[in-house]
Amino acid sequence: MKISLNWIGDFITWKETNPQEIARIITAHVAEVDEVEVAGRLLENCCVGKVLSIDKHPNADKLTVCMVQTDQGDKKVVCGGSNLRKGMKVAFAHVGAKVLWHGGELMTLEKTKIRGEESEGMICAAEELELGSLFPAPPEHGPRPVVDLGDGSKGVGTSLKEYLGMNDAILHIDNHAITHRADLFSHIGFARECVAIGLGTWKKKLPDYTAPKFSRDNVPFKLEIEREELMPRYCACVIEIDSLGETPDWMKKRLEVVGWRPLNLPIDITNFVASEVGVPLHSFDLDDLKGDVHMRVSTEGEKIVTLDEKERTLPAGALVLSDDEGIFDLLGIMGGLRSSTKPTTKRIYLHSASLDPVAIRRTVIATGHRTDAATVYEKGVPHITTEEGFNRAVHLFLELVPGARVVSELSEKGDNGKATPITISVKRVQSVLGAQISSKEMQKILKDLEFEVSAKGDTLTATPPLMRLGDVEGSHDLVEEIGRIYGYNKIEATLPSASTVPPERDQRINHIRDALKEQACIEILPLSFVGPDLLAKAGFEVEGAVGVQNAIGTELSLMAPSVLPRLLEHAEASMLQVETNLKTFTIAHTFPTLDGETMELGILIAARQEPDIYTEPFLVASHVLRAALRAAGYEATLSETRASGAYMHPGRTASIHVGGTTVGTVYEIHPEIQAHFDLPQRAAAVSLNLISLLAHPASTVVAEHVPQFPAVSYDLTVTMDQKKSSGDLLAKIRSSSSLLESVEVADLYSGKPLTGGQYNLTIRCTYRSPERTLTDAEVKAEHEKVLKLLNI
What we know:
By secondary structure, this protein is an alpha+beta fold. It has 20 helices and 41 strands. A 7-stranded mixed beta sheet has the order 30-33-34-38-37-36-35, with helices on both faces. It has a 5-stranded antiparallel beta sheet with strand order 6-5-4-7-12. A hairpin with a 2-residue loop joins strand 28 and strand 29. The longest helix is centred in the middle third of the chain and has 18 residues, at 383-400. The mean pLDDT is 92.
């Protein structure tokens, strides 16, 4: 947004005149200034010149030699302007001035010779001094016409910057810095802030924002507001005019410096008020409105041709005005072409409104059509601003438009709202800001911001002005107002008195994650949403799944009851990328029931080739799980259990126990589910409830020294019955000898000549002494104890 310092100067007397210093102070106290644009930057060393004579250049057909009267005497200049005439006032640049040569490269003028003729300076075209918007080139003047300032002697020799009134500076305000301050999308809003921060004082005579005198006649149609909450404040009347009139130069300059293009006087007045007061208005040609007017929301697919002559298809919910012939205004964004002000307009329906910012924002997003009006309206125009802007516009119509007269009553809806007093203690403000600001100084700051303030003891009671109802709601807002005006730079910087030592972090999950990665398991990070098709495919009940209220699509419409469906989906897409086993895991929040959110560790081991004892998925899953838990300080045991889901193999399921508590399940994937995901061989999974696991304290993991003495291993084979667990047998063997370092399953066999239900279990017993190298006799004696225990 652009703010003119000269325009603010209409309201205040500046104490500070340096634009850069003004920008610095505004940035420190109000909003960030992105850029300071000084008007007429190329007009230094330029004056109003008068062409005294024009002679043909002796050595160039398209050039002339002119004598120009300037503030530094008469100057001889070679010029190629196509519209030169004797007695014409021109924009003259002296030697040393900076110009854009033919509107392009910036150059400094020097005294030179052009085709043998001396030239002291330059008669400039508009684009060479960045004056193209003020002096557009008429096509009949041909190429490179110079600036035509008329005839006569008035103003000749005057500084061109002074002559054109280009002594302004424009502040480019970052819109993001004032998103919460709808009152600052205006010059009067920034004038209030400049007074509050001490940059200026109010002038005695200010623009008239009071209500003008209205007629007693009714507006010639009925206005029906179908959704009052979407347009809580509205002001309108009918104005008759004799003609559109001509926009005065002072208004054109004001509009141009902040980026508006003058069009015609009624439209220029509404744009002027939008920039000065902060409410976009619109003037309609009353004779183009047919029947009663309805303020309503659009239905999807309705169309309007807007002022830019484009037909736009509207979404459902856009705010519009319509009559018997359809929509004629896209409220808060852009008016319709049908009802626009034209040279033939004699009756104007002028209106001003406060609109629902959410509805404006949605329409801008849906249509992709952003305008200056929409940028303001989506911030929430204060109701008082709607009224004051309307009154200001009516006064300007009556003052500037030929024959303008108000011929109707004031048609209005809603009111300006009522402010609620806010109380806060002085000590509270001092404590939050960390500065000893006195009660008297706080009161002055708030009064300068137009708050009504009273004090009783340590308590301040402040009532915000009506234009601040949208952003001042509680005591915290008062602290902010006092702090920013007082100046955060005045608050002494102190180090925090609290401890900065970071809190202890629970690293157990990280230890589990790292241990799984060390065993070649790949972590995947799937979404926590699933679709009903994937759940059913993985063997889960869809009916009990927790639904998402505002789902992006059906495939993401449910909260995941388990991590298994996404692990299986990943395995289906990734099996061809591995040679033996695909080993993946994930840690995520899951939602088995509406109130049953938990954190789950899921591991999936899927074989690509016929597995052996070393690659059999169930055994691998059990092994990597135990190793991961051991790294986090837990020893897990497994026990046979019944399958609890259709995705579990009914005969290959075990419970995981830690500290006497069941914390999860390891199971082989049911063959039907395996087939659903095109897994070529067996697959096994682990589902571990991390919340239940972490409820148990972990033991400290102590690293052991590397053994100094060699180990001796013996294998033995025992025929087992599948109905009996081998865990008890392994536990007995471990307790049979103090020299046994480890007892592990080395192999399994269940083929011929064994009968059904039998298998051969090969057990590897490893012996080692921490003190010496064992002899063969010692090892054999210890191993005999194991054989005796097994009756072998």
